[in-house]
Backbone:
């Protein structure tokens, strides 16, 4: 079975086409700058060449038409006919409390995703546009929604509730939902496969570190707590997001600077994080280079970044009554050996014997980075959200 996976952003569409008989990726790429000048489709051809096609791409439907056209084109195609695509899996960011698993898309599912637009105003509308485009272009093909929030629906109320008037939770659904769920689920399962362990017996702390970052406590294969909240703003210090912040700081800034709610939201979402601290960049590579050259604010940002992650690891180990596996994933988690070393420093009290030499010897590979006799296993597992979406799509379409 061939399954197309779509990840629609506000102005982009990432795609991968899987042959699920072998889970091989036979086509992948990205459409960028949808609705903007200079829009393009960039993809890898079957021969391995990187190809970039520019054109007018005014909306997601047009972008998906471009993708389908490339998949079957004589010059760059990897399939002979669109009839070979038997199902489509969509990354859906927010499913609220309605979905604790992936689901085959029908009118009721679309309506529920629409109801969650207020909770994910940048992502859910894009997902809906992708779904509607596929309904128009390939109406006979079944579609599946895979929610970032679904994995975290196993959290108990003590983890997901906020200490605000309960009526506001009931009225607006204001609670911790968490994100990166597909990634956390994948790396936890994959880590146990690599180690030959039964996930139902393991206490796992998964650190998804990239432009957005979150840490999740996974006990027996289920999410029991996670650092992101109602929105992806809470928790870790990120590229441009402030993460955990005293609400009094925000109201103080709004009062002193006389800025609106919209401006305040932009401040903590787009101009804070390591970018805000350093004034240099939101890219950890740039900040590490600046720190190496003696930039004190860059050094401060790195210390803050590592320290916040370390605090969450300690908190989640306490919440679960221990930890067996600590996983690093995401762009920074997979490639940032300095970040991993900074986070794992002084975690010996948990039973972690970190292998500094192994940690600095690779990039973006599945590797154990603790010593063989370490009571806690630390490891790097590159994430593969698209494969997880394809697997869930195959599981659900096969059930119908």
Residues:
């Amino acid at each position: 079975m061939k399954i197309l996976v779509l990840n629609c952003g506000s102005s982009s569409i990432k795609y991968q086409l899987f042959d699920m008989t072998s889970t091989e990726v036979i086509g992948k790429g990205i459409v960028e700058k949808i609705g903007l000048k200079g829009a393009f489709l960039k993809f890898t051809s079957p021969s391995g060449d990187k190809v970039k096609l520019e054109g007018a791409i005014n909306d997601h439907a047009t972008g998906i038409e471009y993708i389908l056209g490339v998949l079957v084109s004589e010059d760059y195609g990897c399939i002979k006919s669109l009839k070979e695509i038997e199902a489509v899996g969509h990354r859906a960011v927010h499913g609220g409390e309605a979905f604790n698993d992936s689901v085959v898309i029908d009118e009721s599912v679309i309506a529920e995703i629409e109801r969650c637009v207020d909770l994910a105003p940048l992502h859910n509308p894009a997902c809906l546009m992708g779904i509607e485009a596929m309904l128009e272009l390939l109406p006979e093909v079944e579609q599946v929604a895979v929610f970032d929030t679904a994995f975290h629906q196993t959290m108990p109320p003590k983890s997901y509730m906020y200490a605000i008037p309960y009526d506001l939770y009931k009225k607006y659904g204001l609670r911790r939902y968490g994100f990166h769920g597909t990634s956390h689920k994948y790396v936890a399962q994959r880590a146990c496969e690599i180690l030959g362990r039964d996930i139902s017996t393991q206490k796992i702390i998964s650190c998804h570190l990239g432009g957005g970052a979150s840490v999740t406590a996974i006990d027996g294969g289920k999410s029991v707590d996670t650092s992101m909240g109602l929105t992806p703003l809470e928790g870790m210090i990120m590229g441009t997001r402030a993460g955990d912040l005293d609400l009094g700081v925000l109201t103080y800034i709004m009062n002193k600077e006389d800025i609106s709610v919209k401006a305040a939201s932009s401040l903590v979402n787009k101009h804070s994080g390591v970018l805000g601290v350093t004034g240099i960049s939101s890219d950890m590579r740039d900040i590490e280079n600046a720190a190496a050259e003696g930039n004190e604010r860059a050094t401060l940002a790195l210390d803050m970044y590592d320290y916040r992650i370390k605090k969450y690891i300690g908190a989640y180990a306490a919440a679960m009554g221990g930890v067996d596996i600590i996983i690093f994933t995401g762009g920074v988690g997979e490639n940032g050996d300095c970040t991993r070393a900074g986070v794992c420093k002084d975690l010996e009290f948990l039973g972690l014997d970190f292998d500094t030499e192994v940690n600095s010897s690779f990039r973006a590979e599945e590797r154990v980075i603790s010593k063989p006799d370490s009571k806690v296993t630390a490891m790097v597992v590159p994430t593969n959200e698209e494969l997880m979406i394809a697997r869930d799509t195959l599981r659900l379409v096969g059930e119908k």
Q: What stands out?
A: Residues 208 and 311 are 15 Å apart (CA to CA). The chain has a mean pLDDT of 95. The chain is about 40% helix and 20% strand.
